[in-house]
């Protein structure tokens, strides 16, 4: 798929794109370079863009004109930004949208296979930005974009969130967040790929401080179904989620904002507490080494303490006898462990 191969291929030279390219490349480049957004795109321009997209998609498996691919998505990115009219016009064009889906899928698959392919990475970045702008400007396109990114039980999106390219990770999480309707949150949490997706988001947050991955994880913590996935996650990932929960429990909530954590998640944290206390007594070596499962116990305690003082969550502790007994057991166990050797509880 290199440009040198394309230049020397007679079949490519006969392809219709070579008749369109000189004129349309110039048009796309000029439009892509514009810094203003929201201006209506003429029907003539849309017809030209459709033609380019269709040819690029039809020749994807044979040869790729990388500059044309990048320019196409730069144009779409700018056309969609702040323009519901342009976004609506584009989504009504079935030929254009089918071509866009083919190109995005091809870019994703190639990047996952070879993340060092520079031209593909540039095209993928531009395509993800265009999808993000499309969803923000035209909510009705949400399902189309969601289905494209979450194909194969979220394997594609999970791989993009784990990409070595920082911008690909950030743009992917941005698109994902903007598609997170209640139905899509439920779909994500019930899917076979939910664990891999959440692990990737937690890694992103821990390694790059991505605000989009934080926003997604916050949304998941508010959903009742997170408890079905929580214990399947690694201890490190659970600790990230507990840190987010604790942080949000300390913040002032807006009048119409949802609770920072769901009631089923809070109930799950309470039920896990006693089990974790018994784990502590068996993990002196792990405690000394800073094992994440020991860290998780401390974070569970913090979340429960904050929730018990939270005006709208403290009612969940109305019958606190079991939790009180657990808390006393925690204090006793932590005291004994702290005295026994140098470890996380000393």
Question: Can you describe this structure in just a few lines?
Answer:
InterPro entries: ARM-like (IPR011989), ARM-type_fold (IPR016024), Ataxin-10/CTR86_families (IPR051374). This protein is mainly α and 346 residues long.
The separation of the N and C termini measures 60 Å
- Uncertain ranges: 1-20
Share of helical residues: over 70%
Number of strands: 0
The backbone outline, from C-alpha atoms, is elongated
Question: Secondary-structure element order, as H and E?
Answer: HHHHHHHHHHHHHHHHHHHH
Q: Average pLDDT across residues? A: 82
Number of domains: 2
> What Rg is obtained from the alpha carbons, in whole angstroms?
25 Å
Estimate the strand proportion: under 5%
Helical run tally:
20
Helices and strands: which structural class? mainly alpha
Biggest beta-sheet profile? none
Protein model, in words:
There is one protein chain. This protein is mostly helical and 346 residues long. The protein is built from 20 helices and no strands. The protein folds into 2 domains: 1-149, no CATH class; 222-346, no CATH class. α17 (263-280) runs parallel beside α20 (321-340). One of its GO terms (biological process) is neuron projection development.
Highlighted features:
single chain, 346 residues, mainly alpha, 20 helices, disordered N terminus, Ataxin 10, Ataxin-10/CTR86_families, ARM-type_fold
